[in-house]
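Need tokens for this chain, all 243 residues.
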Amino acid sequence: MKLKGKRRSPAWSILGAFLLAGSVLPLIATASLPVGTLTYREVEGVDTAMHAIVVQPREDGFRVELSTRRGSSVVRQVFFIAADLSTRAWTFSDPARAMELDASILDGRIVLSGSFKGKKVDKRFNAGGPPWNQLFQVGLGPFALSGGEGTSFRSIGTQGPGELKIGKMSVTRRGEEEIELNGRKVHAVHLRISLSGLLSIFWHGDYWYRKSDGLFLRYRGKNRSGGPVAVSELVAEEPRDAR
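Here are the structure tokens for all 243 residues:
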């Protein structure tokens, strides 16, 4: 929900370019997450990255840690997620790019602060409108199970044209499929996420969620213009009780 040569704009650190357009169905009011550790492997051409997600329950929702390792580089993120899986606060640390960010909702605004390449970051975004869903690989599970045809959300970009901006993304249901994952057949819900409105022609990604519980299983799309297709898949699932 990977780093050699050119820096990429991976779906895990939120896509590069954003802006406009509409939605149909809001995210579901209540949801649950699998408490424990989820591990994903992403292959993009000759490069491989590993994503580790650790979910911990809180009284008001969840605390989610995401670490992404590409070679010797590690990007770390922490998300504080409400019961409806919308984002309430987020931190982002990428030492290789000298990017340290902190965002949270305060007085009706999403306040983004920190530093990037030695320069101070201080921005305010309106918290109204589509929900802030910074880790949509996790946050869209309830929608996948809802049967709804479309929804939208907003995320803050960390690379590309949408860097340090908040943009709107559209989600459409593509149907139910049986996919092969780790040598087993799994019933899944296929969602397509794209930039909203006319910008949808510039990027889209396909995401699959387990039909039984909404767990994110697979991503397929291009992380950067002109780049190879990237595929990220769940390779390990460790509930907290098993630890």
